[in-house]
Specification:
about 0% helix; 4-stranded antiparallel β-sheet; mainly beta
């Protein structure tokens, strides 16, 4: 976001920080509001993927600079540094990247000099490359007509240069450099406008702050009143008061994983901070005294869990805010009962105090007291690889029987205490990326009501079935996009549906398939669904289907093919999970960015 001197607001859409195992959502360009955000007009750059920075020329509010990171999944498009001389009516690209996956993450206007950061980054289902030869710091001294890649001590051009964070205050510049593989490479300082750079002394806290995923941060902020006072985004917030010679870390008074900071020009010393926990304010120049925003209605949820025993009980996994539950919180809201990136959550339909919760990559726990005490069980399963969102499901006949998917199917008959593998590797293998090793995994499991049939789907587009509890497995489909969900009719083990997402492959199309003969033949049920991945499916009464997509929830009364947007009141937000309670005709949706929604169906 950026505000012009006349109060005009500019907003760039899309997520410039790519995820590790999760989806990174692209935007739809740049928008402008002249009435404080009540109404918005799109200004172009529709194919920018993600807009990382907006800078308004302080001498001319109609001159706007934009850093467009580009699509993470498709080459080309509107990526690089753009300038508009007419308030966004038209755009000129003034700095292009070295290749089709080079985008811009920073643009700084400093008098007659321009500084930009370019970054190579690309994602496929099995590959994650967050750096490359196009990554670097660039400077123009002639208003963008020509550009120079800055060296003078910065890492040389090469495939191992990852994301770079840049801050400029006159001739003082700072650059945070990470490796393509994710870890910290170095912190650099320049006192001559970028001509020469010095690597600051190694500091273990600064190095550790980037963990193995420095591409999630890439930000440096200089105190406007003191150029020696600098904050750096990392897992903790890093601070130096002596231009990088020594550092301190704050990982306790605020949430971790930092992304945005701005100084209030009207209140000296007041700083606002944005991180994976929301928005904070400090009146001590960012050196502590943080106060969290009270109302933050934008939780990013991966999952939901409900129980017919108690409609007030809802739990779900949230991005970097753990597993949340609607019971146990002192203020009647939601209480975090397991940390990390909250993933699969389950509530036993026959015992509401028997709950399950996971954090990223299949680290799962069970509880018999509603989550007050948790017992880790994932190490009792068989696995080499586990997906970011590892599936755990109840058997529909007996919730003491559970299934857990790694690259193999695991089964428990004692409520998750002990586990046995009932399949071999159902994927095509881990892929070729030595860094991203959590590919080639099971992404959905669907046990049928006959006690023998289990379906499984994988991230490399395979669908399998066993009709004898793992004695033999039959491949039903392959070559499809990433399987987001497999659903089986509890009363008819031959009636099965699958949903898919090709988003990581660069396609927005919807994919829903159905079979009435146990997967021997399939029918494409996608029909008139919008061009958006389908994340979940519910088969309800009388053949009604509910589909959770990246643009909300849709329903079909004809078993698929013809779909209607379901209900009112939900924005067009990604819905990762929907849960259905047939006893109350109730749906609960977990949205990625707007919290939980509930709907009473017919």
């Amino acid at each position: 976001m950026a505000a012009a001197p006349d109060g005009t607001l500019y907003v760039g859409t899309g997520e410039p920080n790519p995820g590790g195992g999760s989806i990174t959502y692209e935007g739809t360009g740049l928008y402008r509001s002249t009435d404080g955000g009540a109404h918005w007009t799109r200004l172009g750059l529709r194919d920018s993927g993600a807009i990382s920075a907006i800078t308004i020329d302080p001498a001319d509010p109609r001159r706007i600079y934009v850093a467009a990171a580009g699509s993470l999944y498709n080459a080309g498009g509107d990526r690089g540094v753009y300038r508009s001389e007419d308030g966004g009516a038209s755009w000129e690209r003034i700095l292009a990247g070295e290749n089709g996956f080079t985008g811009a993450t920073e643009i700084v206007v400093d008098g007659d000099r321009l500084y930009a950061v370019l970054w190579d980054h690309r994602r496929t289902p099995s590959l994650r490359t967050y750096g490359g030869v196009g990554s670097g710091v660039f400077r123009s001294t002639d208003d963008g007509r020509t550009w120079q890649r800055l060296g003078g001590g910065l890492p040389a051009r090469g495939p191992d240069v990852g994301r770079i964070g840049l801050a400029v205050a006159g001739d003082r510049l700072y650059a945070l450099v990470n490796q393509t593989s994710g870890p910290f490479e170095g912190f650099y300082s320049s006192t001559d406008g970028g001509d020469t750079w010095a690597r600051t002394p190694d500091d273990p806290e600064l190095t550790a702050s980037q963990s193995s995923f420095g591409w999630w941060f890439g930000k440096v902020w200089i105190d406007p009143a003191d150029t020696d006072h600098v904050h750096v985004a990392g897992v903790p917030l890093l601070t130096t008061k002596d231009a990088g010679r020594t550092w301190s870390a704050d990982a306790t008074s605020i949430h971790v994983d930092h992304h945005a900071m701005v100084w209030d020009p009207r209140r000296p010393g007041r700083v606002y901070l944005g991180n994976d926990g929301g928005v904070y304010r400090s009146d001590a120049r960012g050196d502590g005294g943080w106060v969290a925003s009270r109302h933050q209605p934008y939780t990013q949820l991966y999952s939901a869990a409900i129980t017919p025993q108690d409609p007030t009980r809802i739990s779900g996994g949230s991005q970097d805010n753990g597993s949340l539950r609607s019971w146990g919180a002192p203020d009647g809201g939601f209480d975090e009962y397991l940390g990390g990136d909250g993933e699969e959550n389950l509530i036993n339909p026959r015992d509401k105090d028997n709950v399950f919760a996971c954090y990223q990559y299949g680290n799962c726990f069970r509880s018999t007291d509603g989550g007050d005490t948790l017992t880790y069980f994932a190490d009792a399963t068989t696995y080499e690889r586990r997906n970011w969102f590892t599936p755990v499901v109840f058997d529909p006949r007996d919730p003491k029987i559970l299934y857990y998917g790694s690259e193999v199917v695991n089964r428990s008959t004692d409520g998750g205490v002990t586990w046995q593998a009932i399949s071999g590797d159902l994927s095509g293998g881990p892929g070729d990326d030595p860094v991203y090793t959590n590919y080639g995994t099971i992404t959905s499991l669907a046990p049928a009501g006959d006690g023998r049939t289990v379906y499984a789907g994988t991230d490399d587009g395979r669908v399998w079935v066993t009709r004898d509890l793992g004695g033999t497995w039959t491949k039903l489909a392959e070559g499809r996009p990433w399987v987001t969900r497999v659903v089986v009719d509890e009363k008819d083990p031959d009636r099965v549906w699958t949903t898919h997402s090709a988003y990581r492959s660069g396609s927005p199309l919807a994919h829903v398939y159905g079979s009435t003969d146990g997967g021997r033949t399939w029918r494409d049920l996608s029909g008139n669904l919008p061009e958006a991945p389908v994340n979940d499916l519910v088969a309800a009464r009388a053949g009604i289907l509910y589909a959770a997509t990246d643009q909300g929830v849709f329903t079909s009364f004809t078993g698929g093919g013809h779909w209607f947007r379901l209900g009112r009141g939900m924005p067009r937000v990604p819905v990762d999970d929907i849960e259905y309670d047939p006893s109350r005709n109730r749906l609960v949706a977990a949205t990625f960015g707007r919290g939980f929604y509930e709907l009473r169906t017919w």
